[in-house]
Design brief:
Strand content: under 5%
Largest sheet: none
Order of helices and strands: HHHHHHHHHH
Shape: globular
Distance between the termini: 28 Å
Number of helices: 10
Length: about 240
């Protein structure tokens, strides 16, 4: 009973964080779930809720499409990279990934502390968009935690919150569905894992449906702080899992 309660609370909290920032579900839910079913099973179970909730969130922010930048090309690169990432899932070196991802997140967090209005220059953003999409897709396919790459980049573009939410949700959509397709092709889903995944999806959607309308008016500064708090916490957790 305590195990079920812990999993439900983790998924519920992850759903609330996702309603605020557009990310946070896998970083919150997967570590708790992994403690009871193992890392590989946790990633498999969370693939479906990640994909479906990103569709839900992208639809809610669909009117901001005209404000997004670099998104079409990033989406195309991301879906291919996420499928490739799934195929190398069992051979990925988590320590290398943890250090690389944490370095990016910490650099951006320190940059924001020094200059809260920091924005990536147009030329730099245009050059970075492709590599960010590829690396984020690979990370999604291998670990299910691509937000640590996508979020700092999109945040540095200084998009309005709805455009940020739409952009990151669509990137998560294509990478999540790429990951999901790869897992299905590999025969990773048993009936038990599929049922658990459907139940997790239902729980998260219910929480998001309740939380999202109540969080629409969140202030920009609060939004920025929550986004970076989630990113730093995720980076620290990746380092802890890799080296401790």
């Amino acid at each position: 009973m305590m195990e079920i309660l812990a999993i439900v609370l983790a998924m519920g909290f992850g759903a609330v964080v996702k309603s605020v920032t557009g990310l946070g579900l896998p970083p919150v839910a997967i570590p708790v779930l992994a403690a009871f079913v193992g890392v590989e099973e946790a990633v498999i179970i969370m693939a479906l809720p990640s994909a479906i909730t990103n569709v839900y969130q992208a639809w809610n922010n669909r009117t901001s499409w005209s404000l997004t930048r670099y998104l079409p090309s990033m989406l195309a690169l991301c879906v291919v990279a996420s499928i490739v990432g799934t195929w190398v899932f069992i051979s990925v070196d988590v320590r290398v990934i943890a250090v690389l991802v944490a370095s990016i997140v910490f650099w951006y967090a320190i940059t924001l502390l020094r200059d809260p209005e920091f924005a990536l220059p147009e030329k730099g953003a245009r050059r970075a968009a492709g590599p960010v999409a590829v690396f984020g897709g690979l990370l999604q396919g291998s670990t299910g935690m691509s937000g640590s790459i996508f979020a700092p980049f999109l945040h540095s573009l200084r998009l309005p919150r709805p455009a940020f939410m739409l952009s990151i949700s669509l990137l998560f959509c294509v990478s999540s569905f790429g990951q999901l397709g790869g897992l299905i092709a590999l025969g990773s889903y048993t009936w038990e894992l599929l049922v658990q995944s459907v139940l997790a999806t239902t729980l998260v959607l219910v929480v998001m449906a309740v939380a999202t309308p109540r969080l629409v008016g969140i202030r920009t500064r609060t939004f920025d702080r929550v986004v970076m708090t989630v990113q730093v916490a995720t980076a620290l957790k990746l380092l802890y899992d890799a080296f401790v």
